[in-house]
Design goal:
By secondary structure, this protein is an alpha+beta fold. It is built from two helices and three strands; from the N terminus they run βαβαβ. The longest helix has 12 residues.
Length: 54
């Protein structure tokens, strides 16, 4: 499972990930060169974090 999140929605993304996967995710900062093309899954702002299980 992969989710992209902005600073505002990171807590929501973490909560949903833990509820679905029943484990704590790996959280990484999105690289600067990927920020413009990668949007938050909850709004239209550029994503700041990748929340994933790999």
């Amino acid at each position: 499972m992969k989710m992209y999140s902005c600073e505002t929605h990171i807590n929501q993304a973490l909560d949903i990930f833990v509820a679905k996967e029943e484990t704590f995710p790996i959280m990484e900062k999105v690289k600067e060169d990927e920020k413009l093309s990668t949007k938050c899954e909850y709004c239209d702002t550029p994503a700041s974090y990748l929340v994933a299980n790999e």
